[in-house]
Amino acid sequence: MSSLTDLLPHPIVQAPMAGGVSVPQLAAAVSEAGGLGFLAAGYKTADGMYQEIKQLRGLTHRPFGVNVFMPQPEHPGAATGSTGAAGAARPCAAAVEVYANQLAGEATWYETELGDRDSGRDDGYDAKLAVLLDDPVPVVSFHFGVPAPDVLESLRRLGTLTLVTATTAEEALAVQEAGADAVIAQGVEAGGHQGTHRDSQENDGAGIGLLSLLAQVRETVSIPVVASGGIMRGSQIAAVLAAGASAAQLGTAFLATPESGAHPAHKQALTDPHFVRTELTRAFSGRPARGLVNRFMREHGPYAPAAYPEVHHLTSPLRKAAAKAGDAQGMALWAGQGHRLARDLPAGRLVEVLVAELQEAATALPAGGAGR
Ligand SMILES: Cc1cc2nc3c(=O)[nH]c(=O)nc-3n(C[C@H](O)[C@H](O)[C@H](O)COP(=O)(O)O)c2cc1C
């Protein structure tokens, strides 16, 4: 089977971005330009995911990926068939109830109801896997834990390359031991959710910067590593390749493109000087995710419980109502630390510019380049 780098003319992966951002048009533009376009199956039904796969196949014949969220365990310490998320302590219902009471004013303000916190915790994992095994795609990546080895093996037998996110060297080792083809090293700079395998408030503030993480992961595993977090320029891609990555995965950079399905207010906020910084917050979903600091994050972040996906379900109608009203202060404005460097370029053109910058940076190195 070919490796990720064999599949791609350029070592550039467009990050999967759930919530309607990495739509087929975006993934197609990136894949057509020689990068790897990605669909995000998170929060979608299996059929919704399949419809997007079919749409993407109609737009490009080039390789692409589909990203799947790992299910969250039911009970404290419960095993779920996944090695990564197993053992995570579940929040007590009381903490979610307190948070729901604190969000009541938001529901009144946006003239909506809070969502049903018990709307499910497996994100349709089994049904999505069944689709991906029935009608294989070139690449599948997993977030929030590690699939069981037999799942990875089944995908491999069908010719699908498997990638799993890790945020520490220990998690990267678990990814390798489960039999994935490559690991995505996600630095703390990254926009959106940290793909931590076992969420715990004890780890808050322990996130590792990408270059430091990359070196630790390279010295721990022998499988290829994809570097992700805060990468906005080709020179940064050159840096992670020089540090041992096989490719770079960029989210925020592609979020700003016209093909991305992000809300216009979200795109504008990336370079709006009113949004001066990003933070990791549990305010919207109950799991740490990086976004532009806005009113909702400031008001609710400090006491939001570690309760994913209950908090995600709870805030879903609030986020939808804020988006409908175009109110960036109530939306989840996921963004990485490099957001100010976002460029409003068509996605295919962005890939070309990144490749040119990468080549320039590689040849500028005294040792003669950082190329692969
Ligand atoms: C809006 C948004 C949504 C995201 N959704 C997902 C997702 O569904 N699955 C996933 O594996 N990663 C997701 N991520 C994280 C990315 O995979 C990646 O780690 C991150 O974008 C890299 O940092 P950067 O945004 O600074 O480039 C998301 C990131 C953003 C910005």
Fraction of residues in helix: 25-40%
Q: Describe the global form.
A: globular
Q: What is the name of the CATH superfamily of the domain at 4-89 and 122-267 and 341-364?
A: Aldolase class I
What is the first-to-last residue Cα distance?
Answer: 20 Å
Arithmetic mean of pLDDT: 93
> If strands are numbered along the chain, what order do they take across the biggest sheet?
1-9-8-6-5-4-3-2
Describe this structure in words.
With 372 residues, this protein is an alpha/beta fold. It has a domain at 4-89 and 122-267 and 341-364: Aldolase class I (TIM Barrel, Alpha-Beta Barrel), CATH 3.20.20. It contains 15 helices and eleven strands. An eight-stranded parallel sheet has the order 1-9-8-6-5-4-3-2. The chain has a three-stranded antiparallel sheet with strand order 7-11-10, with no helix packed on it. Residues 77-89 have low confidence and may be disordered. Bound molecules: flavin mononucleotide. Flavin mononucleotide (FMN) is lined by residues 15-18, 21, 40, 42, 67, 143, 165, 186, 189-193, 195, 228-231, 249-253, 255, 334-336, 338.
Task: Please give a handful of descriptors for the protein shown.
372 residues, alpha/beta, TIM Barrel, three-stranded antiparallel sheet
Topology:
Blueprint: H1 4-7, E1 12-14, H2 24-32, E2 37-40, H3 46-59, E3 64-69, H4 93-102, H5 104-109, H6 125-134, E4 139-143, H7 149-157, E5 161-166, H8 169-178, E6 182-186, E7 192-193, H9 210-218, E8 225-228, H10 234-242, E9 247-250, H11 252-255, H12 264-270, E10 278-281, E11 289-292, H13 295-300, H14 310-324, H15 347-364
Parallel strand pairs: 1-9, 2-3, 3-4, 4-5, 5-6, 6-8, 8-9
Antiparallel strand pairs: 7-11, 10-11
Helix pairs in contact: 2-3, 3-6, 8-9, 10-15
The chain binds flavin mononucleotide.
The site of flavin mononucleotide has 31 residues, from strand 7, strand 9 and helix 11.
